[in-house]
Design brief:
358 residues, four-stranded antiparallel sheet, 5 helices, 24% helix, 18% strand
Length: 358
């Protein structure tokens, strides 16, 4: 009897241990892959959009255009009848100043290289390539939405771009940006470059049907079933009165959730966007300086003496790069409107220093 009781107790301990290990393992798996919050999803999407905009290659694929870095993709507006994760680029005939063309869902599959007369001519983004580095979880009830400044969207007019997307030019633009308001009517930002929004749970007056089941005219109002208007009784213009983000996606509001409003948003301002764009420029410039140093064992005397600037860096843009050679091994570089970089030549490597040598 005692021996049997001992066996039973031993089996009980083994089962208890196995159960504890299973619970511990299950808890560990859950902690590895938590469900992201809406704020985390918005932040991830915003950085994916930035990465897409800045990833323009210096050397494009054969027979493809080479636009400058900094162009954002057009949103996915279900303009083709569905939300397929691809940008819906307006046709040439459309009025690109129509702000409603600049609001839609995240184009996580990227932007086509236009084969019809549309406004998309993207660098490496052929067919459905050029995907954003973004995993979109199947949450049809709470998709992310995206609005972009007209100053940063591809309008396919190649001749208009030289000089347009230089950091200096973008910093000089006073209009065309997105405004962010507080619920009390403060202007939190008048120069937002892009905004990512989550609509929250459907409110009483919202019906979230699949776009394929709707008429073309009804599809134009899909965003209204996710994003709500809000009235600000008083404030600093334009942050007062009825703010309607669907019909005028150039003004958005940060406000506590309520029975009539539950939108949340994340944005990046003009200045931060330009700083990241300047960093992208600097990557190209430093690479070319390094190649010059490999050939000549010294830093270039003038920025104009560097060879191999990419097609997107129009000659007019060189005036935005302030380069000063201090000696054979040291120089300073400033892209107008952004911080100065101090560089030194160490062997065959270009290094950034905290202060410039004199």
């Amino acid at each position: 009897m005692h021996r049997q009781k001992g066996h039973v107790f031993l089996i009980f301990l083994l089962l208890l241990g196995s159960t504890s290990l299973f619970i511990a393992h299950f808890s560990h798996v859950q902690s590895i892959a938590p469900v992201p919050t809406d704020a985390q999803r918005r932040n991830t999407a915003l950085h994916a959009l930035l990465g897409w905009a800045l990833a323009t290659p210096d050397t494009p694929l054969p027979d493809t255009p080479n636009p400058p870095p900094g162009l954002l993709p057009w949103p996915d507006r279900a303009g083709d009848g569905n939300f397929d994760g691809l940008s819906d680029c307006p046709n040439f005939g459309n009025d690109l100043s129509n702000s409603r063309l600049r609001l839609g869902r995240i184009p996580f599959r990227g932007q086509r290289l236009g084969t019809t007369p549309d406004t998309c001519w993207s660098p490496q983004h052929t067919s459905i390539g050029g995907m954003l580095q973004l995993e979109v979880s199947p949450q049809p009830s709470s998709p992310l939405w995206y609005a972009a400044s007209i100053n940063l969207l591809d309008n396919a007019d190649i001749d208009s771009y030289p000089g347009h997307l230089s950091p200096e030019k973008l910093l000089s633009l006073r209009s065309g940006w997105i405004t962010i308001c507080s619920a009390s009517g403060e202007v939190l930002s008048s120069t937002a470059a892009l905004v990512v929004l989550s609509g929250g749970a459907p409110l009483a007056n919202q019906s979230r049907q699949a776009p394929e089941t709707l008429s073309a005219s009804a599809r134009d109002q899909i965003a209204a079933n996710y994003l709500e208007p809000i009235r600000i009784p008083s404030g600093i213009a334009p942050c007062r009165g009825l703010i309607q983000p669907v019909s005028n996606p150039t003004i958005f509001v940060v406000a506590p959730a309520s029975d009539t409003f539950n939108d949340q948003l994340t944005w990046i301002d003009q200045a931060e966007f330009v700083e990241k764009l300047a960093d992208r420029w600097m990557t190209t410039v430093l690479s070319l300086i390094r190649q010059h140093a490999l050939r000549h064992s010294a830093l270039p005397d003038l920025i104009d003496s560097i060879e191999g600037f990419p097609q997107w860096m129009h000659p007019d843009w060189l005036s935005a790069i302030r380069y000063q050679k201090i000696d054979a091994l040291h120089a300073s570089i400033t892209i107008s409107g952004t911080r100065t970089r101090c560089i030194s030549l160490s062997g065959v490597e270009i290094e950034e220093a905290s202060a410039c040598a004199h």
